[in-house]
Amino acid sequence: MNPKLNEPKQNTLLENEKINRKLQINHTRNKQQDHTQLLDTAASDFRYENCKDEYWNPEEFSLLYATPVWEQASQTQRIILNQLYWVAYYSQIISAEIATIYFNQTSAAGLYAQEDFRLVCDTLDLESAQERAHINAFKVVSEEVEAVLFGKRIFSYGMRGPFTETMVFGDSNPFKQRWKKLQLQTFGLLSADNTFLACQYFTVRGVRTLNGKLVQHKLSNYYQKHPNQENAPIPSKISYYHFMDESFHFNSSTIISHDVIHCLKPPTAFEKLVANLGLRGCQKDHYHFSAAINGIFWYDPALYQAIYQIMRSPIFDMSHTEAVEMMRRCFTEESEGLHLSYQTHTEAIDSYKVYLEKLDYVWQSNKQMSLMSSNSLTKYLTTQKKAFNRTPPSAYLCD
Q1: 181 is in which domain, residue-wise?
Q2: 112, 187, 192, 296 — which has fewest CB within 10 A?
Q3: Measured distance CA(55)–CA(37) in Å, rounded
Q4: pLDDT tens readout for residues 312-341
């Protein structure tokens, strides 16, 4: 046993038995139930031909569900819309997980100088390895599906760096993209050398994960309740394996951001500012909701071109005029699908409020999700009508 050195007393993790025990249990169980090999095997075994005629998610988690195009779609078209929801949804998750891998690493660096923080860093190392397996599985399925159906990318994309805007279809422009890149780079530098910001990155990660947790639980249920799990479509298995890993990741975010904080010095005014700006950025990213895809807060005008290509593809075989009119009806008129997406948006807001309510350093505007809560069905429809009228039909024509 090492002799005690004559150093200032610190409130280390090992001295807080309850918090340390939480971390140990979560880390140990995640290692024991690690789904990396199952995900790799599923990705290797995937053949679109083998599962192209069946749903991969609950029916309500289909692209453009309960919109005019869904109401007139054939059963074959509905199955493809269900599969395209999977492709679109997990293409967004890839973007988020690329950023997660990077900020796991910078946050771990910010904890190196702290006594007894090895367990947190080991947890983040395991999670980053799992994220890489998730990304690979999502890409394998998404790229094969789009290659077969369209011969080109619609929702998927080549690998990207961690400083690209996380929202794949967001309300952005070149200036916003450059500004967001600078913000992400700056936070990476700050969190790599600041213990409080390293820990409180997980407040943002926890909030961002919450909505995914709500939706992915429902997606994973499709496999869990499948009458023949052995022969269930591989993408549904991937949804389940991913959700199981992410459940442990969410636990990590909560323990680090809500408990480990008590092992740190109180945050300075600057640290509070940076942490709250991160949460404010999350509100901006999650401000919108989409009639096209329930559960991801995409900005629908950015989706118009993608949806137009699907309407013009052999799947629907619409003329240019028919496609534009169908899009007008789907995006500028109320529908059950729009209401379901707004309901998910509202549920997310409520869960974010609960997650943040006991964190003293968080601004009231973030605790109340004031910006995110200010959106509404009326604002959505007004935005879509302006955007649709602003874009001439000829803009949707593809080569």
Answers
A1: 17-396
A2: 112
A3: 24
A4: 999 999 999 999 999 999 999 999 999 999
